[in-house]
Write a structure and sequence with these properties.
The chain is an alpha/beta fold and 360 residues long. The chain is 48% helix and 15% strand. It has one domain (22-309): Rossmann fold, CATH 3.40.50.300. It has helices at residues 4-13, 24-35, 51-59, 72-77, 117-135, 163-172, 190-206, 223-235, 274-284, 286-322, 333-359, and strands spanning 37-44, 83-91, 94-102, 149-154, 178-182, 238-239, 246-249, 252-259, 262-265. The longest helix is centred in the C-terminal third of the chain and has 37 residues, at 286-322.
Amino acid sequence: MYSESNKQSDFLDQDKEYVGFATLPNQVHRKTVKKGFTFTLIVAGESGLGKSTLINSLFLTDLYKDRKVLNAEERISRTVAIIKHTVGIEEKGVKLRLTIIDTPGFGDAVNNTESWRHIDDYIDQQFEQYFRDESGLNRRNIQDNRVHCCLYFISPFGHGLRPLDVDCMRALHEKVNIIPVLAKADSLTPAEVCRKKMKIREEIKQFGINIYQFPECDSDEDEDFKTQEQILKNSIPFAVIGSNVQVESKGRKFRGRVYPWGVVEVENPAHSDFLLLRNMLVRTHMQDLKDVTREIHYENYRAQCIQNMTRMVVLERKRRWADFPLPLAVADTEKERLIYEKDEEVCFSSFIHSFIHSST
């Protein structure tokens, strides 16, 4: 009879020269899958460009069941709102907490000056909350609500970017990963789509807008992967079509739109960049979007906060020292230096402490 001790001995004898750290990726995988993933996406653009339909199509869910469609008068009088939708999605045992930030009212008013301010403030608020949480005493179970990506919808009915588009993207491009989307691509011919994409790319470069940059491929990457990355780069802005309706044509069922002159398929690469956008957001670049948010956008915000706090500490120290004139006697330079450094350290620590407690 094969005992448990024999099994254990066989397990220890196998691969004696094998240390085992090659299993670290498997350990990380198990831990992260158990913990689950989060992703926060904000959608911006004027009403009527199919933002809600596209989001439902991307994630195969219905986030806008109770949405009320407003008439023209109500839309004009409405201010920009921030509406948060959170849904849990599970696929093959992997859990994702998806948060969609909608911005109804954006671009609908007669005067849209700084209508992007609400979006800008919301992104800053999430950075501020995360900064407070990670600076607090209890850093366990910090909820990450930082915005990882902004899908900016561009109207297909203009000649390129509108002034509002330029102002909004320039206000946000240092704080969030912007991915421009050319909405309602089925309203344009293929030649018009190509011309409009080229025009928008030129204007993005002309106005100095920093959209999300796809990471450069390593030299040892697979050729197919390199080709796919180049296709994604050339597809900016993504010309998309959204539909939640199942259409039947030639014995096939698919999501699309029926017109008198034919049928448009949402997931047909010849009709739209929908598949490219979905694969980029979900399958290939979701983690990179989160990494760029953490390592660049949030770090810039964090460094600015610390710099501002340090400046306030220095000003406070100068004010305090100005209230006490220097003694006439010659003081010990080294001793004075140590006292000065200690005083600055205590002052800065007390400021951080008061900042954290005042915000809780």
